[in-house]
Automatic annotation (TrEMBL), chain A:
Organism in which the protein naturally occurs: Methanoregula boonei (strain DSM 21154 / JCM 14090 / 6A8)
Organism superkingdom: Archaea
Name the UniProt record assigns to this protein: Uncharacterized protein
UniProt keyword annotations, A-Z: Membrane, Transmembrane, Transmembrane helix
Residues annotated as transmembrane: 14-34
UniProtKB/TrEMBL annotation, chain B:
Keywords for the protein's UniProt record, in alphabetical order: Membrane, Transmembrane, Transmembrane helix
Lineage, top ranks: Archaea, Methanobacteriati, Methanobacteriota, Stenosarchaea group, Methanomicrobia
Source organism: Methanoregula boonei (strain DSM 21154 / JCM 14090 / 6A8)
Segments passing through the bilayer: 12-35
Name this protein carries in UniProt: Uncharacterized protein
Keyword Membrane: yes
Amino acid sequence: MVNDRGQLYTIEGIAAGMIMLFTTYLVLGATSVYTPGDSHISDMQLEQTGTDALQMMNTPANGTSESQLQQIVENNEGNTFNTVFLDYVNNKTGSKADNLHYTASVTYYDILNKTTVTLPPFAFNRNLSGVEHPVRVTELVIANKQFPGGSGTPRAVLVEVLLWRD
Amino acid sequence: MADDAGNLSIDFLAGFTIFMITFIYVATLIPGLFIGLQSSSIDYDAVAYRTGVVLTEDPGMPYNPSWESPSVADSQILRFGLALSKDTPNILSYEKINRFFCTTEFVYPQDYQSRAVFGDYPYLFNISLQMAGSNVTQSVGDVLPEDYGYSRRVIKVKEHSNATLDFSNCNLLSCPSPLAQYALTGSQAGNATIQAFSLYFNYADLLDNGPANNNPAYQINPLSPSGTGQITGGEGVLVNLTGLGSLPQDNNTRVNLSSISVYRSVSLAPLGTGQSPFEGPVLNATNPSQFELFIDGTPVTTLPQPVTNNATLFIPPGLLSFLGQGDSSTLLNVTMQFSLTNVTTGNPQPDRYLNTTQVAPYGAFQYNYTNPNITQPYLQNGVMEVAVW
């Protein structure tokens, strides 16, 4: 004998189908797909600003003076770097300034020991705690200063800045 | 008994209908699923980036004569680019910025879309520029919507050179160095009733011997952007003479700026002094409309004019190029001539005044890279933002 226990009847089937479809619609509509490309955009913008800032800091204001970045590296002026760099990266054309964080360090090549040495950060406005997602921007600077492991001047050193927004 | 073989059951009909509806629904849903992937903001950001690069790293098109020159008509401009030259990215030209942001000349958005933003889609945008320490923003475009593509560039703008000579510390007997050479003192003074202040430009020297390996960013460039036969772009020169009231030794001396003359020599180095080795004058202006002349703070268009304390001569962009006939071997002498008279009788009155005739070697104030009275070209910081939607 045919037993109809556990069966889904027509009307209930339609109702259940509707509920399932509606649920699917809600779920799909509420999710936005975040692609890797999207995060790449904000990183790229940050890199652009940082690279521009370092490049402009390494451009002398007139034909006879040294660039600001060159002076900063030669005299290890962390405070000046802090002021000037933040001015460059935070300035916007509107009245509201940006709010970026960074740490900056200098890397040189030790000719004697044939190693690359990165000095501790000489300027920063916040410590990297590890949860940030910084971008790395660099600028080669010609400095009239002696670095360990080589006697000659000028020396080319790399100014490296980790830049992030929180 | 009824045979129900071959009948369509109502269960089958209902099930098939639901299946078909679902199938059609899913089929229409699938393209919509990828809308998130084809994010418009990615596209806008890319266009904003591209526009930022075109504006800050490219000198624009046409290049020679450069698009910012008044001689280049709007319709001839193919691409806006604000960079000074292709070798100086992020270093912008003052003249290019001014023409770019001239919204009476170019119409938003179509003129800018075809020359700076590009693309098939008619993007709307807002481009703004602000110099550091200034609260004036130059901008073109619409009010920003909620969501837009964005690019920010850190820039520098080249400021032109200028010469400032302040004679206010001159007393009856002498002038402090290095100004003393430009004013007759002691026994030299007191004979001349007509005195002259000349500016001397050696184009070859200015174009070849600029600082920092002749970097265009720091060059005094009388020909840039080059162009011949007509007034094109080029850099301006500002000469500011102040404190002139301290020069005459007699209180009854009245000083008039009587004329501004321009003498030119092309491809020939004059060895003598003053104007005699030159051709000319090529421009003898008692109506100095080609210059911008300010006497004691007031703009002046006719000469002669009485001078009390200050005279400012601005040779506007393009005039040096025009006067030099676009030739890089030009030598130019711009002479301001003053006549001295007695304030009561009106007769010529000899007295001490501006006079460059005795200055070695050319009898003129040399406009070059080493003159201590000249503020050399320098770079100003600024920021430019591009928003596209």
